[in-house]
Amino acid sequence: GYWIVVNYREAYGIHASNGILFNHESPLRGETFVTRKITRAVGRIKLGLQSELYLGTLDARRDWGYAGDYVDAMWRMLQQPEPRDYVIATGESHSVKEFVIEAFACVGLEWEKYIRLDPRYLRPTEVNHLRGDASRAKTELGWTPRTSFRELVRMMVDHDLELARQERTLRDAGHRVAEKADLDG
Questions:
Q1: Which of 41, 80, 139, 168 has CA atoms 20 to 30 A from the CA of 14?
Q2: Distance set, CA 17 to CA 21, 22, 62, 144, 148 (Å)
Q3: Closest CA to 35 of 162, 153, 181
Q4: Given its phi and psi angles, is residue 151 left (phi above 0), alpha (psi -120 to 50 degrees) or beta?
């Protein structure tokens, strides 16, 4: 996504840097995004609340970084004397399949037993490979991502495993746990 980072200390002579932030993920990512869809399913599958995960493609490659690292980059942009455009990315590209393998490995499950491909989830205009070049951010801002791909996946799985534990506790106690579809009406 694109973010405009504004330094209001320069009010009306606005200091605005354009941050081109590649996929920035965290446990707070919406559950409709593939990374979070995967990590939610992993937690639920591990605890017996779900039996399979449907995905469109395993081949798409993305430059996934940790949102907290990207916030640091945005702060650094605002400390510059002159506004500039910056690409914020890890410079690494991982496939959906790599994300799936890593996520299932976090809980000791063999991913092949649970993944189902469903053409309904294919995007007709899918960009197959995205990877950013944050060399200007490194050079001018002194910024590099601190969180590795593996650490990011682990962080997200751990969070969603805890959510699944809470869900299972409620179900085991006889409570009905509302699904998103129930809440949407």
A1: 139
A2: 12, 16, 24, 18, 26
A3: 153
A4: alpha
CA distance 130 to 60: 8
* pTM for the structure as a whole: 0.88
Which alpha helices (H) appear in 47-148, and where do they start and end?
Answer: 67-78, 96-106, 135-136
At 143-170, the pLDDT tens digits run: 999 999 999 999 999 999 999 999 999 9
Q: If you write DSSP's letter for every residue of 98-113 in order, what string do you get?
A: HHHHHHHHHTT--GGG
DSSP 175: P
Based on its alpha-carbon atoms, the radius of gyration of the chain, rounded to whole angstroms, reads 19
CB contact at 8 A, 35 and 100:
no
Nearest CA to 134 out of 54, 70, 46, 59 is that of 70
pLDDT at 14: 74
> Inter-axis angle of helices 96-106 and 149-172, to 10 degrees?
60
Query: Quick one: tokens of 76?
Result: 């650094």
